[in-house]
């Protein structure tokens, strides 16, 4: 005889509050990174370290990552195994634009400190999304 644990979907309020908390956490932490970078001399002239830029990307990245997590859990039988590989690979791949920026300087004011600050934002956003994804749709 096999027994399967019934999975219940989280309530809409739980999902909403979890997603809002993840977005707020990523916004707060990316803002902290930007403030520290600017205080350390990254420069106010670097457009990606302006709130309208990094908050837009942090919010969109958090929402897209949570959505991706939920889709993987929903459609992949061994989602935990896939997510253990997929999340780190995607975080590493997300550094590609930062490395290109560091090597080419295609955005004016892109000092090494400013680029490192941008790179630090990626795992922060991923971490917020993973924590929210685990709460909304636990991997199996």
Brief digest:
With 140 residues, this protein is mainly alpha-helical.
Describe this structure in words.
- This protein is mainly α.
- It has one domain (12-136).
- It contains 5 helices and no strands.
- It has helices at 12-39, 51-75, 79-94, 96-104, 112-136.
- Helix 4 (96-104) runs antiparallel to helix 5.
- The longest helix is centred in the N-terminal third of the chain and has 28 residues, at 12-39.
- The two termini are 21 Å apart.
- The mean pLDDT is 94.
Question: Features of this protein?
Answer:
single chain; 140 residues; mainly alpha; 5 helices; elongated
Strand content: under 5%
Class from secondary-structure proportions: mainly alpha
Computed Rg: 18 Å
Q: First CA to last CA: what distance?
A: 21 Å
Sketch the topology as an H/E string, one letter per element: HHHHH
Overall pLDDT level:
94
Give the low-pLDDT segments: none
- The counted number of beta strands is 0
**How many domain regions?**
1
Label the overall shape. elongated
Largest sheet: none
Task: Quickly count the helices.
Answer: 5
Helix content class: over 70%
Secondary-structure blueprint:
Elements: H1 12-39, H2 51-75, H3 79-94, H4 96-104, H5 112-136
Helix pairs in contact: 1-2, 1-5, 2-3, 2-5, 4-5
């Amino acid at each position: 005889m096999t027994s399967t644990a019934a999975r219940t979907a989280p309530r809409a309020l739980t999902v909403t509050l979890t997603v809002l908390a993840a977005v707020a956490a990523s916004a707060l932490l990316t803002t902290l990174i930007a403030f520290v970078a600017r205080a350390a001399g990254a420069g106010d002239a670097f457009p990606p370290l302006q709130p309208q830029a990094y908050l837009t990307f942090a919010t969109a990245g958090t929402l897209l990552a949570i959505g991706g997590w939920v889709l993987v859990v929903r459609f992949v039988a061994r989602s935990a195994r896939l997510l253990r590989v997929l999340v780190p690979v995607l975080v590493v791949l997300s550094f590609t634009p930062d490395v290109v920026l560091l090597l080419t300087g295609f955005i004016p004011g892109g000092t090494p400190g400013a680029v490192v600050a941008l790179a630090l934002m990626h795992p922060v956003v991923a971490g917020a999304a993973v924590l929210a994804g685990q709460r909304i749709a636990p991997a199996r």
